[in-house]
Write a structure and sequence with these properties.
- The protein is of the alpha+beta class and 394 residues long.
- The chain has 3 domains: 106 residues, Butyryl-Coa Dehydrogenase, subunit A, domain 1, CATH 1.10.540; 90 residues, Butyryl-CoA Dehydrogenase, subunit A, domain 2 (Beta Barrel); 157 residues, Butyryl-CoA Dehydrogenase, subunit A, domain 3.
- The chain contains 12 helices and 8 strands.
- The chain is globular, with a radius of gyration of 21 Å.
């Protein structure tokens, strides 16, 4: 379902995402085996309007509230962590694309259902040439790149003065090569392969300097005064990542609730696991961890949206707190899934059992350098202790 058949608003977007769960869940094992989200699921996400959440309204997008985005993305992640991660990365990259010069947006958003991928790993090199840049190099961890229309590639450009400048460059996927190198244990179906640029010319209007963006300045004239696009993209990523963690952890609780009524505890007198006191303790603790993660998510979303609505600047302490909250709630979700995984018995090791995949997916998400709980807690602790955060990525 694409084009005119796509719903024209996001009024019931969360419900539409929830309605896709049976389809997404039925494809989860195949998604993992083929190391990319299946075509049927990709099209279903587009058909539900998931890719429109951050596309400007003038191109047919929704500019969905952050609360709605977190709700929709968590529903997708609950059905399949890999599909959810691909959806949240493409939602985020569409947001970034809306910060590019308006001429670039006219090229990118030829359809409100356009799929934009990208990374913030400056592994490539950009050289000034012919009214733009010539780019060469690798862009690893390019989630969903095989199903993307555009890629936001990060490269370093030698300015001749001081350190190299980090740039985001918008490039059609038709001009790039994909290395089939995503063979991992967690989020295995997200298709986060390496994208390669070989002497690709990128005109200047499709370039977004990263440094000024982190400082709150971006070149889009049409969107520069829109409160929606004044929300800091890195804080937005914290909310999107939270949706992925919450969806997975909620799915673990649901799966455990079903399993404990269908199996006993081997080498004990318990013919049904739900009758054992140890199960009550495990279930309750896991549920409380997820509830705490939900409260933290609601708090960070409320902060981001309230600052945007009021036009108030975000303090450094608020920014590092959001990063710390993102890492901490992910840790809580991972701990909940680990607890459920260890309580689910050896039969849960089978590939068809969702629990083992959820555990691996949450482990992978917590290893993301921007989500990592320990790293984010250190940043917050530095600021609480009166020190500089030690990073511009806030």
């Amino acid at each position: 379902m694409t084009g005119s058949s796509v719903p024209r608003s996001d009024t019931d977007l969360v419900e539409r995402a929830r309605g896709l769960q049976p389809l997404i869940r039925s494809h989860a094992a195949r998604t993992e085996r083929q190391r990319r989200v299946t075509g049927e699921v990709v099209e279903a996400l587009s058909g539900a309007g998931i890719h429109r959440m951050n596309v400007p309204r003038r191109y047919g997008g929704y500019q969905s509230s952050l609360r709605t985005q977190v709700g929709a993305l968590s529903e997708v992640s609950a059905a399949c962590g890999s599909a959810g991660f691909m959806a949240l990365i493409q939602a985020g990259c569409a947001f970034i694309a809306a910060l590019f010069p308006d001429e670039a947006q006219d090229e990118i958003f030829t359809s409100p259902d356009v799929r934009v991928g990208g990374t913030l790993i400056p592994s490539a090199k950009a050289v000034v040439a012919d009214g733009g840049y010539v780019v060469s190099g690798n862009s690893p961890f390019a989630t969903g790149c095989q199903d993307a229309d555009w890629h936001l590639l990060t490269a370093l450009a030698d300015t001749g003065e001081g350190p190299p400048e980090a740039l985001w460059l918008a490039i059609p996927m038709t001009e790039l090569t994909v290395l089939d190198d995503w063979d991992v244990s967690g989020l295995a179906g997200s298709g986060s392969n390496t994208v390669v640029a070989r002497d690709v010319h990128v005109p200047a209007h499709r370039v977004l300097p990263v440094g000024p963006l982190l400082a709150g300045t971006f070149p889009s004239r049409r969107n520069s005064d829109d409160p929606f696009y004044r929300m800091p993209v890195l804080l937005m990523f914290c909310a999107w990542a939270a949706a992925g963690a919450l969806g997975l952890a909620r799915a673990a609780l649901t799966e455990f609730e079903e399993r404990i009524h269908q199996r006993g505890i081997t080498y004990t007198f318990y013919e049904r696991q739900h009758e054992a006191p140890v199960t009550h303790l495990q279930f309750a603790e896991a549920a409380m961890k997820v509830s705490a993660a939900e409260l933290i998510t609601a708090d960070l979303v409320a902060l981001i949206e309230s600052r945007a609505a009021g036009g108030e600047p975000y303090t450094t302490r608020e920014r590092v707190r959001v990063r710390a909250q993102c890492g901490y709630l992910t840790r809580l979700c991972k701990e909940a899934a680990d607890l459920i995984g260890s309580a689910s018995g050896a039969s849960s090791l089978h590939r068809e059992a969702p629990v083992q995949r959820i555990v691996r997916d949450l482990n992978a998400l917590s290893l993301h350098s921007f989500v990592n709980p320990a790293a984010n807690l250190e940043l917050y602790g530095r600021v609480l202790s009166g020190l500089d955060a030690g990073t511009p990525f806030l």
